[in-house]
Write a structure and sequence with these properties.
The chain is built from three helices and six strands; from the N terminus they run H-H-E-E-H-E-E-E-E. It is of the alpha+beta class. It has a single domain, classed as Roll (Nuclear Transport Factor 2, Chain: A), CATH 3.10.450.50. The chain has a six-stranded mixed sheet, covered by helices on one side. The radius of gyration is 22 Å and the shape is elongated. It starts with a helix and ends with a strand.
Length: 166
Amino acid sequence: MRINKGIIAAGAVLALFAGGWLIYDALIVTEAESAETYVRRLAADLPTRPAASYIDEVDLDRFGFRLSYRGLSRAFGKGEQEAFLQTATALAPQVLGSTATVRSVEVEMAGPVANVKLNVLYERDQAQAPVERAFITFQGALAKEAGQWKVTKLSAEPTLSLRDRL
């Protein structure tokens, strides 16, 4: 029985290529995976961070930032850091002190921009008070600056808000 050396060589090359691709895929974090990790962390950390730290997540001078929340629509651009901080400080108490559970995340890459959608459950349990729960749907866009994601657009809408007595 004669074995064709060309078939064996082609099989070996194919096996090497497939193995190399699997290793590459396992080791390299895609932009979409990186964006998902970033928004999950951001949503979970939001209730524990002071509003002044939100400025670290945007670059108003380079990308600007557009916010939509319960009828409020505001755009911030170059030099508007103080206005951004005032708005963030006014909105922050809505989730401060709660715990966040990210229920779902969708990321779609459009060139260098990541379009994201996530559903988050925020719960606040205060002693001798009702438990407050809010499901919030966030939609937004991210851009990278020096290897770091920055939020350029954010729409946040509560989809359900409950107060339960335990």
